[in-house]
Amino acid sequence: MPFDENNSASYQSLSAAEFRDIVRGEPRGRTKVTPMIQIADLVLYPMAKGGYDPTYRPYVSLMENKRLIDALLDPNERASLGIKYSCFERINDKGPDEPSL
User: Fold this and answer.
1) What would the mean pLDDT of 37-55 be, rounded to a whole number?
2) Looking at per-residue confidence, does 4 or 91 come out higher?
3) What is the rounded CA–CA span in Å between residue 76 and residue 94?
4) Which end of the chain is least crowded, N or C, by CB within 10 Å?
5) What does the DSSP 8-state code read for residue 76?
6) Separation of alpha carbons 92 and 42, rounded Å
7) Which 3-state string (H, E, C) describes the chain?
């Protein structure tokens, strides 16, 4: 990935080989009829919106049902092991101060 490894070191980023192993294929070959793409749409949007609106109902539901990694982690671990919200400038830290659901 074209990210500065020094700046992203605290996020424990994947190596290129790890990323390739997880993705397993060419993402451009996937369409909306692929079941995993549909699941990504159902989870990814609420997860992203939850980064700036933690009251968004689908996000709350995913957290309550422990379908997101942040719901399974100790609040102190979320900054390093949880969902990465670094692309959202309005998000400071979804760590220990985040209300528990």
Assistant:
1) 85
2) 4
3) 10
4) N
5) G
6) 25
7) CCCCHHHHHHHCCCCHHHHHHHHCCCHHHCCCCCHHHHHHHHHHHHHHHHCCCCCCHHHHHHHHCCCCHHHHCCHHHHHHHCCCCCCCCCCCCCCCCCCCC
